[in-house]
Amino acid sequence: MNVFQAGLFEGKVVLITGGGTGIGRALALAFGELGAMVVIAARREGPLSGVVKTIEDRGGRACMYTLDVRDEARVEEVVRGIWQDVGGVDVLVNNAGGNFMSPAVAMSAHGFRTVLDINLVGTFLMSQAVGRRWLDEGREGSIVNISATNAEYGSPLMAHSGASKAGINNLTQTLAVEWGGTGVRVNAVLPGPVRTEGSDERLWTDAALVERVEEGIPLGRFTTPRDVVGVVVFLASEAGAFLTGSLIALDGGERLRSLIF
Ligand SMILES: CCC/C=C/C(=O)SCCNC(=O)CCNC(=O)[C@H](O)C(C)(C)COP(=O)([O-])OP(=O)([O-])OC[C@H]1O[C@@H](n2cnc3c(N)ncnc32)[C@H](O)[C@@H]1OP(=O)([O-])[O-]
Ligand SMILES: NC(=O)C1=CN([C@@H]2O[C@H](COP(=O)(O)OP(=O)(O)OC[C@H]3O[C@@H](n4cnc5c(N)ncnc54)[C@H](OP(=O)(O)O)[C@@H]3O)[C@@H](O)[C@H]2O)C=CC1
């Protein structure tokens, strides 16, 4: 993103969960271009290694860890490894997420829990493992959580996702208060619908639905990964130094459509 100063994140380590695909991939490439040491972590090695290679081919620095954000022991092991290997983390982006479409009456308890575990518990575990070290070291840091607008106005056919993202919003504000004293900032970005590998496979499979959703967005299009990059980089940078506990909707006005029409 050339609106940001070259080298803006030089000397900083940026950890992005789910950095191998979609929004996480776009974030990883952007932070890499801005000079950060990029650390990406998710379950599948293939997408992660592709992103690491792309960043390195472009002259940046990156490394990867495989982990499931639901696995507390592995989260702790990976964060400990990052502290040993690259000296810690300056920015954590909790981007890893899961979703699928199902009417609430048909959703199994396990399906509901699965999405809560990935999105909300995973965000908690990652934040705790990193935040605990920041507090111990008296070190400043910035967390950006990737929430969604469905946290705010209900989430038909995605009860699990909406509930998890609402939980993330609340957790964002709680951690902002608990950890503000040592200069740790915690914010969230709430994208509207975004076309990505993961969402195209699970949510945006029906062209008529995509058209209907798009028609309801005042700015006339889905949110893009690039839109998300702009706000996350801003929040993680000095320009966002006095923002904490903020929940920034990034949706072209999508969440307001019922008020407008
Ligand atoms: C506006 C939008 C805002 C947000 C957008 C996004 O987040 S886009 C991001 C999009 N990107 C992603 O989502 C990427 C990551 N997503 C994933 O890895 C998977 O989609 C995951 C979330 C299911 C987790 O996988 P996993 O291997 O850990 O889980 P598992 O396979 O073992 O299933 C657990 C339970 O869920 C059940 N279940 C699953 N699918 C369906 C369905 N379609 N229908 C009904 N149920 C379904 C499954 O049957 C099982 O329950 P059961 O039968 O035991 O009672
Ligand atoms: N697309 C959309 O419409 C919207 C998306 N969002 C949010 O944006 C974020 C990124 O989604 P998007 O890019 O669209 O989707 P993708 O499916 O492309 O990306 C999700 C990433 O999360 C990783 N991931 C999933 N589960 C786990 C897990 N248990 N542990 C570690 N990593 C995991 C996946 O990698 P792997 O499978 O290798 O683990 C994948 O790289 C999510 O939090 C999503 O909820 C918010 C609003 C709208």
TrEMBL record:
Keywords: Fatty acid biosynthesis, Fatty acid metabolism, Lipid biosynthesis, Lipid metabolism, Membrane, NADP, Oxidoreductase, Peroxisome, Phosphoprotein, Transmembrane, Transmembrane helix. It catalyses: (2E)-tetradecenoyl-CoA + NADPH + H(+) = tetradecanoyl-CoA + NADP(+); (2E)-dodecenoyl-CoA + NADPH + H(+) = dodecanoyl-CoA + NADP(+); a (2E)-enoyl-CoA + NADPH + H(+) = a 2,3-saturated acyl-CoA + NADP(+); (2E)-decenoyl-CoA + NADPH + H(+) = decanoyl-CoA + NADP(+). It holds the Pfam family adh_short_C2. Interacts with PEX5, probably required to target it into peroxisomes. It is an enzyme of class 1 (oxidoreductase). It is found in: Peroxisome. Coiled coil: none annotated. Participates in chain elongation of fatty acids. Catalyzes the reduction of trans-2-enoyl-CoAs of varying chain lengths from 6:1 to 16:1, having maximum activity with 10:1 CoA. Has no 2,4-dienoyl-CoA reductase activity. Its main location: other. The keyword NADP applies. SUPFAM superfamilies: NAD(P)-binding Rossmann-fold domains. Its EC number is 1.3.1.38. This is Peroxisomal trans-2-enoyl-CoA reductase. It comes from Lujinxingia sediminis. PANTHER family: PEROXISOMAL TRANS-2-ENOYL-COA REDUCTASE. The chain crosses the membrane at residues 228-250. Pathway: Lipid metabolism. InterPro entries: NAD(P)-bd_dom_sf, Peroxisomal_t2-enoyl-CoA_red, SDR_fam.
